[in-house]
Amino acid sequence: MAGRMRRRGATGEVGISWRNLIAFKRTFTDPVPQKQEQRYAEQGIEAFHGMARFTARDRIEVDGQTLHARHVLIATGARPVPLTFPGAEHVITSDQFLELDELPARIVMVGGGYIAAEFSHIAARAGARVTVLQRAERMLTRFEPELVGWLMQKFSEIGIEVRTGTAVEAIERIGSGFGVHARAGSQEITAEADLVVHAAGRVPDLDALDLSAAGVAVENRRLVLNEFLQSVSNPAVYAAGDAAAKGPPLTPVSSHDGKVVAANLLEGNRHRPDYGGVPSVAFTLPPIAAVGLGEAEVRAAGLTFRVNRQKASDWYTARRVAETVYGFKTLVEEGSGCILGAHLVGPHADEVINIFGFAIRHGLTAEDLKQTIFAYPTGASDVGYML
């Protein structure tokens, strides 16, 4: 923001010290394991450390110890999709990126989803030269094409090179750096890098569990679960979060799944997860956010609806912080007035999307939101005009 407001009231040069930034990040992340284990102990929960695997339908082995269980909850999260091209061993994960004490000068992101979008914005603003190589025809495919297109203006402004329709074929070490070889149609491309980051997506982390020993069914690398998040082939086993892969791969969804499973274990199978109105945000600068259905999904469902879309960079919300990227797209069902989907990019999108999520989850109509009086000037005060 200080950079955008230069010559508009802000003075002085502002920069990022990567080492200090990571040190600050660690004040949040480093204490978590100990605090969590302390909470477990206070609740009488025993923690075992080590790689877990099934040895029977109701038995888990951890570090040589066998645990017998009436129920097992699989909540192992997700891991990076395996990369199969030559030289894939040179790629670091997003977790490793966030532990770097120094930021290299040239970075290549393999993939174009959340990790590539967010990390490229961080790295570029910290002074790195970033290249994104994305196999698909656009970045952030979970978001609406128009809004992603508007956001790409920001990638260009801060010097991030984005190559879509480009598949990485190999990585080779060249001196102290790497050559990332890719193909875009018939064109061969080589990007030079000091660091290559895996940003090609994640899958449920299940391989080490030896699920076959427990008779837990898997299809297409995903657990086969019923509506209660219970294994269809082994009733003793439940799953939650990324391991379950039922809802959007988001932290709040994992917490929601955990509560559902806990209730079912205590009360019997009475509770089902509800993923309606769950917002999703990519924390680029500015952020892009979505909740509900996209336009293609609404059309496929055969619903009658109206669309309101606008690039609104001239609205006060954007102008007052000198932001060039601001826009929205909302989908409202004709007749009922129910909000089917909302898609935002720009200042405060990460907060304002929660209002639309609340409306969708609780059945509020577009008119309900338009009649609501929001504080002004805030990002939320634009909601009525978006509908």
Tell me what you see in this structure.
- A five-stranded antiparallel sheet has the order 17-18-21-20-19, with helices on both faces.
- The chain is an alpha+beta fold and 387 residues long.
- Strand 7, helix 5 and strand 8 (161-163) form a beta-alpha-beta unit.
- Helices cover 26% and strands 25% of the residues.
- It is globular, with a radius of gyration of 23 Å.
- It has helices at residues 18-29, 32-42, 94-97, 114-125, 145-157, 251-267, 295-300, 316-319, 349-361, 366-370, 383-386; strands at 52-56, 59-62, 65-68, 72-74, 78-80, 106-110, 129-133, 161-163, 167-174, 177-184, 187-193, 195-198, 202-204, 218-219, 222-223, 237-239, 280-282, 288-292, 305-311, 327-333, 339-345.
- It is built from eleven helices and 21 strands.
Short descriptors:
387 residues; alpha+beta; four-stranded parallel sheet; globular
Structure at a glance:
The protein is built from eleven helices and 21 strands. The chain is α+β, with helices and mostly antiparallel strands.
Mean pLDDT: 95
Q: Number of helical segments?
A: 11
- Radius of gyration, whole Å: 23 Å
Largest sheet: 5 strands, antiparallel
